[in-house]
Write a structure and sequence with these properties.
Blueprint: H1 18-22, H2 26-33, E1 38-41, H3 45-52, E2 59-62, E3 64-66, H4 68-75, E4 82-86, H5 90-102, E5 109-113, H6 118-126, E6 130-133, H7 138-144, E7 150-153, E8 156-158, H8 160-177
Parallel strand pairs: 1-2, 4-5, 4-6, 6-7
Antiparallel strand pairs: 3-8
Amino acid sequence: FTDHLELDPHIRRIPILLEDLRNHDDEKIQKVVDCDIVVTSFYHLREVQEYLGYLDMPIIGINIEPDVATLVKVARIPQDHKVGIITTSIQFAREIREVLEKLNITFSEIFETTSTNANTVKQLVRKCDAVLVSPKQKNAVKDYAMDGTGVIEFVFTPDRTSINNLKLGIIELKKNLM
């Protein structure tokens, strides 16, 4: 979601995946150590605090919501289609399901996987008319999709209030650093 933060262009954003923290990727963690602030979704705030709480820097949670363009694409999938949800985390898949339920969007069948195993992903994709994917899975899924299979990257963006609060937090941080 870092591309959607609408921050000062002089502020350097360094996207780090939760998976990098879980895997104790020293190179990625060093990038975090060199930062002044960490921003994550409220969904992952507690876990990020567990991994990075030892650092003396603010860790800010923001609310994210489905991107409107994503919702329009999903809503256009016919209800009689078989749809796959392919993500790298159970939490992301759950968030997609919750969005579908909240908007009362249904399909004839929904298949899910969080596997990164190529064969597992390929088999699931081949059963579907459309596939909703996390950004990390998009390219792999496109490779397995047959002609006519819709591959929709499920994008979440920060809401307006979170962006404004983050901007205020950055202003405060700048004041404290001066």
